[in-house]
Amino acid sequence: MYWHDKPYHTLDYELKNTYGEKIYKIALDANMTCPNRDGSCGTRGCIFCSAGGSGDFAAKGTSIHQQLEMGKHFFHDKKIGSHFIAYFQAYTNTYAPVSKLEALYREALDEPSVVGISIATRPDCLDNDILLLLDHLNREYSNKFIWIELGLQTIHEQTATFIRRGYPLSVFEQAITQLQKICIPIITHVIIGLPGETKSMMLETCNFLAQKGINGIKLQLLHILKNTDLVEFYEKKTFEILNLMEYIDIIISCMEILPPEMVIHRVTGDGPKNLLLAPLWSLDKRRVLNTLHQEMKKRGTWQSIKFALK
């Protein structure tokens, strides 16, 4: 089974199928913080999170409009497509007064070239007022989309405690129930290779999500970044970093159990070159993707081949 030329349901396929052209994502920094940094549930963030709050590639500017213009300029030389997704990426993008959030989201949604917004946040930062705002905007901007990206990383509580996620799995489950009630698509972030996790544990996380009606998933390789608390554990060699073929094997196994309609937004990650300590093989993204596609072809496999709704 193929989605265009790929054996998995890529975001590129989904967007081209919907809009008939290439759609680019512009990462934004809305000047937020995070409850895991401001003292609400922690001060140092998740153990793997950089000082940029996972927004190291976000555009910088004084306004959302300015950042979008800077982002669009970056893509001008590609000469493919003219529409964009405004990606509120850095830190926790529902962690602010509702009035501020509404102004930010509207500024992005009002941009004619923006087809929709994607909001990266935490499931414990979606109170009733925020859900009402999302519902209202989703109805008002019916010609555009609003996605919510939730950083789950793992379903295993022991790992979640170690990485300082700051909320139990039940909070995530409640959040997806509430978002699905108001028809907001959900993209979930999963980290492959977390300390102490076996392949079977990673597959348990993906199988859990496969049963929850999640719209999309980001399968992210664990990066060891400078100036994060994870560096200490890495330098003490308390866990093993996955090599390329180990990672490819796990990614394939994960995709095999995901439903065919679930969009795969990412199968690797982009660690900033100036911050990345390991694994350095991840810097060669083309090699990672080519190896993945070759291995899937060799195995004669594809996304959903082993999916079974329970």
Topology:
Layout: H1 11-19, E1 23-28, H2 64-75, E2 83-88, H3 98-109, E3 114-121, H4 128-140, E4 145-153, H5 157-162, H6 169-181, E5 186-192, H7 199-210, E6 216-221, E7 224-225, H8 230-235, H9 244-256, E8 263-266, E9 276-278, H10 285-299
Parallel strand pairs: 1-2, 2-3, 3-4, 4-5, 5-6, 6-8
Antiparallel strand pairs: 7-9
Structural notes for this entry:
The longest helix has 15 residues, at 285-299. The radius of gyration is 19 Å and the shape is globular. The mean pLDDT is 92. Helix 3 links the parallel strand 2 (83-88) and strand 3. By secondary structure, it is an alpha/beta fold. It contains 10 helices and 9 strands.
Strand content: 15-25%
Q: Major sheet: order of its strands?
A: 1-2-3-4-5-6-8
Termini, distance in Å? Answer: 22 Å
| Number of extended strands | 9
The major β-sheet equals:
7 strands, parallel
Q: What does the radius of gyration come to?
A: 19 Å
Uncertain segments of ≥5 residues (pLDDT<50)? none
| SSE arrangement, N to C | HEHEHEHEHHEHEEHHEEH
Instruction: Please estimate the helix content.
Output: 25-40%
Shape: globular
Total count of helical runs of at least 4 residues? 10
